[in-house]
Design goal:
single chain; 296 residues; Trna Endonuclease, Chain: A, domain 1; alpha+beta; PH-domain like; four-stranded antiparallel β-sheet
């Protein structure tokens, strides 16, 4: 279970760093193993509701958006007791501003005990939202307030999703568009149409960078999502789904091009998950999937 908790921690850091939690806040700082009283918080992020967009958006945000801070905490443990939960919430309220919003995400290995569940569900403080998830029971609960319900709805702890931009594949798409555009310009020259070739190539390059994105998304973009029962892997529009129960073992596979894959083994075949293209940590991904297969 400790590997799975570590995997969830890495996943959450990745989502925060890539702005996947902007529905919650614009986070500016992320801390690993943050000390909060007697607790060591695996992931702590602080941000605000201030917009990061265009100049006018920033001006509007400056005058209209509340200036309080948003605090996000991911706390993982084998099992959280009633005493520890109360102490954690109290530590947050003492540490952070009186008007700040606090989002606490709890992930534990064992099932959530009844008394802990009652505290989470009946949390009265409207500026503190709590969501809790058990790896053992696969159950997720949240405090019955606006922050808690929003956290549970948008966080999706039961599923991890990875879809980074793969630069080499994107450059392939740029090269495709640029090559076709260059052929078009050469054809114009043969037809006697006057053009400034240097300027035309620069414009074509800029156009290629923009026009390549739909091609990249349709042909190359790799997305990997997983939960406790299985996984989905998209390459462009092609989707492959699998269930962990169909596989018996896992290894780290290195291709001749030095690309790293997680290789899953079943009785009939093997299946490779491209770690380098989906932005997964080799060690954490291997350990987490190994633990999942052991439970099946």
């Amino acid at each position: 279970m400790s590997q799975e908790l570590g995997f969830i921690t890495d996943m959450m850091e990745e989502r925060l760093a890539k702005g996947n939690l902007t529905w919650l806040a614009n986070f500016k700082e992320i801390y690993r193993d943050y000390t909060l009283g007697d607790f060591v918080i695996p992931i702590y992020a602080v941000g605000s509701l201030t917009e990061k967009g265009f100049f006018l958006s920033r001006i509007f945000s400056f005058f209209v958006t509340p200036k309080y801070k948003i605090h996000f905490l991911l706390y993982t443990s084998t099992e959280l007791s009633v005493k520890s939960l109360r102490k954690l919430i109290l530590s947050c309220k003492r540490k952070f501003g009186a008007d700040d919003w606090i989002f606490i995400t709890l992930v534990q290995a064992k099932p959530i005990e009844k008394n802990v569940k009652n505290i989470v569900l009946n949390l009265a403080d409207e500026r503190v939202g709590v969501a809790a998830y058990s790896l053992a029971s696969k159950k997720e609960i949240s405090s019955n307030n606006v922050l808690g319900r929003s956290l549970k709805k948008n966080l999706k702890l039961t599923e991890a999703r990875f879809e980074p931009l793969n630069v080499p594949d994107y450059l392939k798409s740029v090269a495709i568009v640029f090559s076709l555009g260059t052929l078009f310009l050469v054809a114009l020259l043969f037809l006697g149409v006057y053009t400034n070739m240097v300027l035309a190539l620069l414009i074509m390059l800029a156009f290629s960078i923009i026009a390549a994105y739909p091609i990249y998304k349709r042909r190359y973009h790799t997305v990997f999502s997983l939960n406790s029962t299985g996984f989905k892997l998209w390459k462009g529009t092609n989707l492959v789904e699998g269930r962990w129960s169909n596989y018996t073992d896992v290894s780290i596979h290195i291709t001749p091009q030095r690309e790293t894959y997680i290789r899953l083994y079943s009785k009939e075949e093997t299946f490779d998950i491209p770690l380098s293209k989906v932005g997964l940590s080799r060690k954490e991904a291997y350990n987490a999937i190994k633990q999942i297969l052991k439970r099946e």
